[in-house]
Amino acid sequence: xxxxxxxxxxxxxxxxxxxxxxxxxxxxxxxxxxxxxxxxxxxxxxxxxxxxxxxxxxxxxxxxxxxxxxxxxxxxxxxxxxxxxxxxxxxxxxxxxxxxxxxxxxxxxxxxxxxxxxxxxxxxxxxxxxxxxxxxxxxxxxxxxxxxxxxxxxxxxxxxxxxxxxxxxxxxxxxxxxxxxxxxxxxxxxxxxxxxxxxxxxxxxxxxxxxxxxxxxxxxxxxxxxxxxxxxxxxxxxxxxxxxxxxxxxxxxxxxxxxxxxxxxxxxxxxxxxxxxxxxxxxxxxxxxxxxxxxxxxxxxxxxxxxxxxxxxxxxxxxxxxxxxxxxxxxxxxxxxxxxxxxxxxxxxxxxxxxxxxxxxxxxxxxxxxxxxxxxxxxx
Length: 380
Ligand code: OSB
Ligand code: MG
Hints:
Elements: E1 2-22, E2 25-39, E3 44-49, H1 62-77, E4 81-82, H2 88-93, H3 100-117, H4 122-126, E5 132-134, E6 136-139, H5 145-158, E7 162-166, H6 173-183, E8 189-192, H7 202-206, E9 215-217, H8 225-234, E10 239-241, H9 248-257, E11 262-265, H10 267-270, H11 273-285, E12 290-292, H12 299-309, H13 323-326, E13 332-333, E14 343-345, E15 356-357, H14 359-365, E16 366-373
Parallel strand pairs: 6-7, 7-8, 8-9, 9-10, 10-11, 11-12
Antiparallel strand pairs: 1-2, 1-4, 1-16, 2-3, 5-14, 13-15
Helix pairs in contact: 1-3, 5-6, 9-11
Bound molecules: 2-succinylbenzoate and magnesium ion.
C-alpha cells in the first residue's frame, strides 16, 4: 500500500557545461522541477520533471507542470491510499488530458518511494533484467561540419556506444557525411531532427540513406503518423519516433501504420513508468526495438531512466550520458559514470534510484519551493 503524505516541489537552476541546440531551440541552463515525496513512515523518494522552459519540444513547460502538479495531480496522491505504484498513472490520468510530464514526475516519484519501502532497486521493482546499460551521446547542432566532427570524435574516444547528432535543414547531409568519413563505417551513428522537416523534404532526407545510420529520429511533426509512414516507405534508414509517441495507443498506431521501426521511450513524455512499460511490452511483442531517451536530466531523472533502460527490450543504447557530460557538478552522490565499455552500471544493491540527493547543493540551487500535503506529517 502506497500513501504519500507530503510532496515538496522545488525548482532548481542548473547550468549546462555548454549550450545544447536542437532544431527548435537552445538551452544553456536547465530549470528543473524536483519532487521529494514522503510517506507516513518518513520514507522519501525523489523524481524530476523533465518539462523544458519553452514549449518547443512538447506543449508542457516547467511552469505548466508546476501548476498541474499543484492544482490537479498532487491532490490525487497526497494522503490517498493507492494499492500499488502501478496504479498511480491511472489515478492521475482519469479525466486529466495531457500534462504527461507533470503526471510522470508524480508517478515516478511514487515508484521510487515504493521501491525504497521494500528496500529494492527501482530497476528490480520495474522488472529490469540488466545490470549495465549501454550509453549513447546526443550532440547538439554545431556551427560547422568540422566542429561536429571534433565532438563526435571525442565522444567515440570516450567509449560511447551510439552517437546521435541533431540535424535541421542546412545542417544535415554534409554534417553527417563529414562525421561518417572521419569515424569510419563501424561506428553507430544516428540523427535526430526534432520535427524540423516536412514530407516535401523526403528526397533530401533520402540522401541520408548513404551513411548507414542506425535510425533517423522524429523527422516530421509530432501528430503526423500518416506522413511518417509515407516517408518511411521512401527511406531505407529506419525512422525512430520520439515526440509522436505520447501513449501506448500511439505506439500501436506507429506499428500498424508502419510510421517507424524503432521507439525512443522517454518516461516523462508518456506519463511515467506504467505507460513506458506498456509501450515497451507492445514493442517487444512486435519485435520493435526501444531505447531510453533523455531530456538533459540531473542525476535524479537519470536514475529513473537507468532503471527503465534495464528492462529487456531496451536493446539499443540510450541517451544516458554520465553526469560529467552535462554538469560541472551533479546534485547526486555518487555521480553517474560510464565505464570503458560505454556502459552505465545499474545500482542494484541500493534502494530506489540508487543515488542520494545532495541536499546542500539542492538548497543552494533552489529558486522556489512549495510544500503540498500535511505540514504536520513530516518535518522538512
Ligand atoms: O529530442 O531527444 C531529444 C534534449 C532535449 C529535448 C529533446 C531531446 C533532447 C536530447 C537530449 O536529445 C539527450 C540527453 O539527455 O542526453
Ligand atoms: Mg528526440
